[in-house]
From TrEMBL:
Residues 423-444 are annotated as: Disordered. Gene3D superfamilies: BFD-like [2Fe-2S]-binding domain, FAD/NAD(P)-binding domain. Residues 360-409 form the BFD-like [2Fe-2S]-binding domain. This is Thioredoxin reductase. Residues 435-444 have a biased composition (Acidic residues). InterPro entries: BFD-like_2Fe2S-bd_dom, BFD-like_2Fe2S-bd_dom_sf, FAD/NAD-bd_sf, FAD/NAD-binding_dom, Metab_Enz_Cyan_OpOx_G3PDH, Opine_Oxase_asu/HCN_bsu. GO terms for molecular function: oxidoreductase activity.
Length: 444
């Protein structure tokens, strides 16, 4: 047990969490910045391990100047003792009274909490998606940013969402041959919403388009990956075009992703108000956990959450004028995020056309699509929980975090995160020890 108590605990050291911690620290609160990663920055600002001695880590990043400014401020706060950074700490439970239970540092108490736990990738199943060499798009990016390694020499990047562009551009710049970039969305949908795209985002898109062109990578719009082929690892993928024609592309790695989902394990899904407050008093949320919108939106939300928390935890009514600029940026970027949600989506018949009966949809429990379809067709399952009970899909190590959206799509039912009492796998000995401590406290 740490025995420490802070004015504010911030869970997650990505853009939103860092912004919240900095603002609260500026206002004089003593802040604990708790994060599962070994270094601050989150996925967006992920850096190589110090032992790799990367000479130009900024070459792999967009907006590296912003990160340098954030890192400088954070280091100053840590040195002054206003922010305590606790890296490598996995929070498995948030107890009423704002006690964070971590696997590595024991219990951490606070007067309030900002949840900035980010998001995680959504990957939908298709034949061959369990082959070695098939990684998520974000996983390929993490390998490159954090480990300075490529998932393969010849890579296909596929799926849907704005993440695919920087992944393909980054892999190509690092020396990989990107054999294809397959995007399921229709570019005409983007043009219809052109007036809702902020100028900065339009420039960012143009920069990535130029990088792709420089490396000879053409975006194959309205193309989806429908199969990966190989024996010991992926050797080729099949892409389906809008006219139904199929194209086989040789590769030794496939980076595939279908967007992001909020990481809500600690508190379940919720909405936030204009101050980023959740319905639970004393708990704020910022960044992808409130809805996926990118690093700039996360920074704006984190700033607002940190300023609001700093005022209210000291018994003062916050002045919204203090974060007016961040609020305007937040609203503009939220509108843009809504456009992206509308544009980047798979065809409605994807599950029927791409997922064969023998496709494994739950990797942990090795449940095929046929079992899910049988549960719906013959056993009357109409929701994800019933499918889970009848097929074991989602009962494995990941507890449905990876397979949930795919199982729901095959079952034809809505995907809803069921919520979990524990946010991380926890040793039984730890739970037993905590029960013993509670028993001791209750004794006279």
């Amino acid at each position: 047990m740490t025995g420490e108590r802070y004015g504010l605990a911030v869970v997650g050291a990505g853009p939103a969490g860092i912004a919240a911690a900095l603002e609260a620290g500026d206002a004089g609160l003593r802040v604990a910045l708790v994060d599962a990663a070994p270094q601050a920055g989150g996925q967006f600002y992920r850096q190589p391990a110090p032992g790799l001695r990367a000479r130009r880590p900024g070459a792999l990043h967009h907006a590296w100047g912003t990160w340098r400014r954030l890192r400088g401020r954070l280091e100053a706060h840590i040195e002054a003792g206003r922010v305590t950074h606790l890296p490598g700490c996995q929070v498995w439970c948030l107890e009423p009274g704002f006690t964070l239970h971590t696997l590595e540092a024991g219990a951490i108490g606070a007067d309030g909490v900002v949840l900035a736990t980010g998001g995680y990738e959504k990957v939908l199943p298709f034949p061959g998606w369990t082959l070695p060499g098939v990684v998520t798009a974000g996983g390929a990016q993490a390998m490159l940013k954090g480990g300075l390694v490529l998932p393969g020499r010849t890579v296909v990047v596929a799926g849907t969402g704005p993440l695919l562009l920087p992944v393909a551009a980054g892999l190509a710049a690092a020396g990989a041959r990107v054999a294809a970039l397959a995007e399921a969305a229709d570019p005409r949908d983007l043009l219809r919403h052109a007036t809702a795209v902020p100028l900065g985002k339009a420039v960012e898109g143009a920069v990535y388009a130029a990088r792709l062109a420089r490396h000879g990578i053409r975006v194959r719009w309205r193309h989806t990956v429908v199969a990966a082929h190989g024996v010991d690892r992926v050797e080729a993928v099949t892409l389906a075009g809008p006219d139904g024609a199929r194209r086989r592309v040789a590769c030794d790695a496939l980076a595939v992703g279908h967007g992001l989902l909020p990481h809500t394990d600690l508190a379940g899904s919720f909405e936030v108000d204009a101050e980023q407050r959740t319905p639970t008093p004393g708990v704020w949320a910022a960044g992808e956990v409130t809805g996926v919108g990118g690093a700039e939106l996360a920074l704006a939300e984190g700033e607002i959450a940190g300023r609001s928390a700093a005022a209210r935890l000291r018994g003062r009514e916050p002045d919204p004028a203090a974060w007016a600029t961040a609020a305007r940026r937040r609203e503009r970027l939220r509108r843009f995020a809504a456009v992206l949600d509308a544009v980047y989506r798979l065809p409605g018949d994807w599950a029927e056309s791409a997922v064969t009966d023998d496709t494994v949809v739950c990797r942990c429990e090795e449940v095929p699509a046929s079992a899910v379809r049988e549960a719906v067709r013959d056993l009357g399952a109409g929701d994800l929980r019933t499918v889970k009970l009848l097929t074991r899909a989602g009962m494995g190590w990941c507890q449905g975090r990876v397979c949930g959206p795919g199982v729901a799509a095959v079952a034809g039912c809505p995907f809803t995160d069921p919520g979990r009492p524990l946010a991380r796998p926890v040793p039984l000995g730890l739970l037993a020890g905590q029960a013993d401590e509670e028993e001791e406290r209750e004794q006279p």
